[in-house]
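FAQ: What does the model actually see?

It sees only this:
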Amino acid sequence: MALTSHTDTQNTSLNRKYLNRETKGAADAFDGTQKEIYLEKTPSESSAEEVIHVLGSDIKDVNDSISAMSKQIVAQKARIEAIGKKQKDFDADVRAFQKDTSDPITGTEFENLGSEFESDKIIKGISMLVENEIQNRITNLEKQLDYEKKNSKIFSTSVEETLAKFLLVEKNLKSTNHKLEDEIREKTAQIIRSERLSAIGELASRLAHDLKNPLTVIKGTVHLLKHNNNGNIDELTKRRIEVIEKSIFRMTHQIDGVLDFVRESPLKKETSSLNEIIISAIQTMMVPSNVSIFFPREDIVFLCDPHKMQVVFANLILNSIQAIGAKKGKIVIHASKTEKDLLIAVEDDGPGIDPRVLGRIFDPLFTTKQEGTGLGLASVKNIVNQHGGKISASTNPTIFSIKIPLY
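And it is asked to produce this:
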């Protein structure tokens, strides 16, 4: 008796080939209905969610096939058991017949035929084949699913990292753009200010020269008048001469300030004494009797342009004298040095600098005084910068701090 297995058709439906990325384009993977089922799983063309959905459908098809095969196995088992029952009935008839005959029938052919259809062995073999095939299919599907999940995570991570890099580059570009815009605005303002100061400087220089010559004549005449008639001048005349001298000094200082700011002569450095420079600066001005000036305890020798450094101290000391005014006050000049730098501080006990204008006091033409030109501290800063140094100011008390190289 021949048996036809109904599992071949079902196994055909399970016989699917899943193509990886390297075999896309092949046309030899079909299901039982000759329908092409390969999946192109490139992350850039198909999302991981779509791939997972297709794999889930395939797993469902496998489960349906398993269910159908189980039903067929049950039916096959029933048929085999029926055949076994008929074989047993036939054997009983043979044994009954043998009782009536002297030539017994061995029944070997029937026994062998029956042994070929032992239901337990057949079912066990079929079940093992089906289970192995199903397990292999499920394992392949799980591997494919894990592969797609891994690729989708890698692709997602790569996209996130690339996006983060682009955002960082964009942020840096914006920051750089803002800095460049600020620098352009600052440079433009500096150019405009420089052109304006250049025009003002030319005019001021011509006016200063024109004013300085007659002032020199007036100053010399007053000096002669004072010394030639020293014993014959009354107190009222002496006070008037002093007023004239102070006025001449103030005008001369303002003219010198303009010229110092306008002139851009190179430095003529030489080894100089700090205290000698301070004394020379004081000798060019009229120090009122209510103001005391204290020199540094240590005289420091350094390399500088002594004439220009004299202008620095003259402006700073005069600025302190004007701040102290008529009340009694003092100006203290501190000095120290490091291995490479000279540190100078000019301190006074005046009312201090208004914090609102502290950041502008070194700007050209900025002044809070009626008789000021706004060029004194600007000239000081230019000279210090020429020497490769820095100057800063603080208030309460007012201190001008200078740091310049010793050599």
